[in-house]
Design a protein that fits this description.
Layout (H helix, E strand, L loop, with lengths): L1 E10 L4 E11 L2 E6 L2 E8 L2 E7 L3 E8 L4 E6 L4 E5 L1 E9 L2 E8 L2 E8 L1
Antiparallel strand pairs: 1-2, 1-11, 2-3, 3-4, 4-5, 5-6, 6-7, 7-8, 9-10, 10-11
C-alpha cells in the first residue's frame, strides 16, 4: 500500500467540487477521506465501484457500461434505498478514471487522477 496525492472532481448541474488529498492506493483500490466521508474506488476492467461512507449512510454505486446500480443505505435505521442510475460514459486509463452518469434526473461527472 502506498500513500499518494490524488485529485478528484465531482460535478453536477449546480456545483463542482475539486479535492486534492492523500489516498491509500493498493492494486485496484483507492481509499481517501473527504471531510467525514470515506471514499473507496475499486477498478476492475470496465467495472468501477464507488463507495462513500460515514456514520450515517453508505452510498454504493457500481458503474458498468452495460448495467449500473446504486444503493443508499441509512445506517442508523438500517434502511436501504435503491436508486436509478444510468452510466453515460466510462473512461479508464493509467492513473485516471472518468465517469459520467445520471442519478435521479441529475447529471454527474466524477474524475480521479491518482
Amino acid at each position: 500500500m502506498a500513500k499518494k496525492l490524488i485529485k478528484t472532481r465531482l460535478k453536477n448541474n449546480e456545483e463542482t467540487i475539486n479535492l486534492e488529498v492523500n489516498a491509500i492506493i493498493s492494486d485496484n483500490k483507492i481509499v481517501y477521506k473527504d471531510k467525514d466521508v470515506t471514499n473507496t474506488v475499486i477498478i476492475n476492467n470496465d467495472n468501477i465501484d464507488l463507495i462513500r461512507r460515514n456514520d450515517e449512510y453508505q452510498l454504493s454505486m457500481n458503474f458498468n457500461k452495460n448495467k449500473s446500480q446504486c444503493e443508499y443505505k441509512l445506517l442508523n435505521i438500517d434502511r436501504i434505498l435503491n436508486m436509478d442510475i444510468e452510466t453515460i460514459n466510462i473512461d479508464i486509463k493509467d492513473n485516471y478514471v472518468f465517469i459520467k452518469y445520471k442519478l435521479n434526473d441529475d447529471m454527474f461527472e466524477y474524475e480521479i487522477n491518482y
